[in-house]
Amino acid sequence: MPQGVDFRYVRHFTQDIMKAKRTLSIAIGVIFALFVLLGLFASFITDMWWFDSLGYIEVFWKTYSAQYALWFIGFVVFLIIANINISIALKSQSNLTVDPRLQQFVDGFGKAIKWLAYGGSIFLAFIMAGMLSANWMEMLAFMNSEGFSVADPVFGNDMSFYLFELPFINAVKSWFIGMVVLLFIATAVIYMLRQGIAFTVGRISISAPARKHLAILLAALMFLIGISYWLSRFDILYSMRSSSFYGAGYTDINAQLPAAWIMTIVSFLTGLAIIYALFKRNFKLLAKFAIGFVVVAILAGSVYPALIQKFVVDPNEQSKELQYIENNIEYTREAYDLNRIVEKDINPTYTLNHEDIVADSATIRNIMLWDYRPLASTLDQLQVIRLYYTFPDVDIDRYVLPDGSVRQVMLSARELDQNKLAENAQTWVNNNLVFTHGYGLGMSPVNVVTEEGLPEFFIKDIPPVSEHGLDVSRPEIYYGEQTNNHVIVKGNIEEFDYPLGDENKMTKYQEESGVDIGSLFRRLIFAMNFSDMNLLISGYLSSDSRILYYRNISERVRKLAPFFAYDEDPYMVVADGRIYWIYDAYTYSSDYPYSKPIMGFNYIRNSVKIVVDAYTGDTKFYVFDEDNDPLIRVYRNIFPDMFLDQDQLPEFLRAHIRYPQDLFDIQSEIYATYHMEDPQVFYNKEDLWNIANEKLQEAVVKMESYYAIMRLPGEEREEFIQMVPYTPNKRDNMIAWLCVRSDGENYGKRLVYKFTKQEQIYGPMQIAARIDQDPVISQQLTLWNQQGSSVYRGNLLVIPIKEEVMYVQPVYLQATSGKLPELKRVIVAYHNRLAMESTLEESLRRVFRSGVTAEEKAAAAELGEEAPKGSSVRTLREISRTAMEHYNDAITAQRQGDWTRYGEKIEQLKKELQQLVKESGK
Fold first, then answer.
1. Which among 657, 677, 696 is the end of a domain?
2. Per the domain annotation, does 881 fall within a domain?
3. Out of 15, 313, 373, 767, which residue is the most buried by the measure of CB atoms under 10 Å away?
4. Is residue 501 situated within a structural domain?
């Protein structure tokens, strides 16, 4: 051993090192715990700041307090009940002989069983509490229920019971059943580990304490199952047993409902039998009840209803189900608000003439010649300006011009797509501080076409160039449909505003919106929340900096109000010099009795219009039609400071409110069946309608509803409506068209115009077939398709004029190598007449009058005066082209031996030549 080494100092030195290591480990652990804690609360705190910045802190606290209150209740209730059961199981004693291998396994755990049991209960309590807290909105609706003043026809309960109360009751019931099942399994495992349950060859031995304990849990489960069966009585109101209708039918009322009562009683008796057997040790009785429960469940719940359906209902279905079909019709119409649709009969006489067209010039000048699909491609080619801009969507609206005329327009926001920046420009500074917003928009009237076949713009370019008083003084778009990342404004660096020649125009954010990120603490919190340390260390942030997040308007409104459903297409509005987004929100439920579901719900209302400022992100919720929707009244009870009345919506925005397309599509789909109010007609589907099909390129698709400005039959002036045509089931002729009004006091009023059944009206598919079969039109389209171009036929539009309908279809031509579609022709069809010309006006003249007299020319001039800029007049060139077409048609008819058509075309050719001579002599 070496001399002079004092091992006492070595030992002390080693101990000091160990203490230092422990201290360092503790310090690291504390710091790590603090960061974990901050990370857990970062999302909570940043959400709180965000809600507060928008003025919705009350919504935040009500939402989180409901969630955490329910979570706390679930956690405490589960933990108390679980620990009582665990404590009883751990204290039990057993002298059962167990398998030696199991005994060795149990001995290895020793006292760890206790800690595992209690630790496991805490873990399960967290899970169960989370499951219960997910029902926070159901709890709030339960506590703030509002009556419908409509009762179901079976139990007589107000509809509020099914929409506001029963969902929460069912959620609590399911939670307790889940808890008892978990505790039964966990308790059985503890007894196994404590030798209260022993497995030997061929048998299972259970100690008396374990038997009593598990029997009590099993009895509790049976009582809960009994409650579940009692509540299941109401499920018959949503029965899908019949293929003819939705809701409770004869079998449900007379077999399934009694079965639910029987199973309720049997479940409670089985629970009592378990307790009785526990104390009387009469396990044969328990076995009989268990077998009886299964047998009764099968016979009463499945076999008996099936026999009733097979031998009582099916042979006499119409008479047995008639009253229940009537219930289905009544409650479906109420749930989808179909009762307020007004039906009107119209009788086309096929007498529409050129004077009628001129008289309805407002409808004509707003016919939608620009399909949103080719227009989107055109915008990308003409108005993107720079590669990093994009037009994500094309919206439709109407604007009043300074001359008092109402014009339908298509418009799209020019948003910034950071992914399209050059790769070396996609830095953190550029993405978060410089390239922060889109700029301006493109707006064009729906029916104005330049000589090149392109749209004419009311608003275009960067900076915005506008016409007709549609000025945009605040064109920046910080909040839009593609603004997905957070950005910082008011930093120590200017933001890119828009390109100006070879230079870039820079700007500074001018508002106080967003959330303050000036302090070190806030920068730390946001850095943790977004996992972005640059927010903490960047020198470009100042004490005045603000962070904008949840900028995608879809994400934004869902964050504020997750209890609504939302329209797929928010639309942009230019008003008061600013850009706004209007978002339609829906109250909905899947719990309305007897109402046929569609897309997972069976009740819907559009009771809320949300307005988002594209610059500030300011978000307001305006309530419409509150009297017709108890759901929105409940939400107003829950969040009284969240909603504003519709009369508080600024007048400049109220002029742009429109009936939402998604809701109209849902209602029109349901109405196709549920316009039949006679239960016998409904059962036989004698008058079943379909939304009309159309041919879009080579595919046959369901016709989209569309917005239009037109004068409805019997009305004095034009208005902004949405419409869709119907055809009879499995047929192509048109039978009716449904529309909804959007202007002023007529907002939301729906009308269906039904054609008298004496004569058939051509439907969209029949018109498409006539277009395909027309030799002149088909020859021209085929020729274009063979010359390095592709033809795109837009939506076929049904245009009501008086009590008649005509069809209009735009035809676009696009070079195979290019992406710039040009409007080249317009097809007009009316009754048996069909024309394809360069402009809408020419096609209308061809269809409604073959020649042009002096009087007609004056009428055409009047129409042209009101027609939009860019439309053409009837020139010598056009007359010559029309004459040539008549000549070609005559030659074709001659070759086919169709001498009647030949004579007609020669006569039309004569008139065109006379007109040509007359015009040439001027």
1. 657
2. no
3. 767
4. yes
Q: What does the pLDDT read at residue 14?
A: 62
Q: Give the CA distances from residue 692 to residues 429, 547, 700, 797, 840, in Å, rounded to whole numbers and listed in that order.
A: 52, 49, 10, 11, 24
pLDDT for the residue numbered 863: 43
CA–CA separation, 443 and 324 (whole Å): 52
577/469 same-domain check: no
The DSSP secondary-structure symbol of 360 reads T
Region of residue 809 (phi > 0: left; psi between -120 and 50: alpha; otherwise: beta): beta
Q: Do residue 669 and residue 576 come from a single domain?
A: no
Is 903 part of a structural domain of the chain?
no
Q: CA–CA separation, 233 vs 235, rounded Å?
A: 5
Give the C-alpha separation, 280 to 274, whole Å: 10
Token pair belonging to 725: 């045509």
* CA end-to-end span of the chain: 133
Question: Minimal CA–CA distance to 467: which of 456, 480, 479?
Answer: 456
Report whether 196 contacts 96 (CB < 8 A).
Answer: yes
Residues 615 and 494 in one domain: no
- The pTM for the full model equals 0.86
Task: Print the domain residue range for 67.
Answer: 57-204
The total of other beta-carbon atoms located within 10 Å of residue 260's CB is: 20
Pairwise CA distance, residues 878 & 869, whole Å: 18
Residue 693, φ and ψ in degrees, nearest 5: -85, 160
- H/E/C letters for each residue in 744-774? HHHCCCEEEEEECCCCCECCHHHHHHHHHHC
Assess whether 617 and 721 both reside in one domain: no
- DSSP alpha helix (H) spans, 675-763: 679-684
DSSP 155: T
Query: How does DSSP assign 408-438, residue by residue?
Result: EEEEEE-EE-GGGS-GGG--HHIIIIIS--E
The reply to whether 635 and 697 lie within a common domain is no
Mean pLDDT, residues 350-365 taken together: 89
Cα–Cα distances in angstroms (integers) from residue 296 to residues 301, 304, 689, 746, in the given order:
8, 10, 44, 58
* CB within 8 Å of 737: residues ≥ 6 apart: 723, 724, 725, 726, 752, 753, 798, 800, 805
22 assigned to some structural domain: no
pLDDT at 450 over 80: yes
For 479, the 3-state DSSP assignment is coil
Q: What is the mean pLDDT of residues 431-435?
A: 97
Q: CA 373 to CA 375: how far, in whole Å?
A: 5
Q: What's residue 115's pLDDT?
A: 84
Provide the domain count of the chain: 4
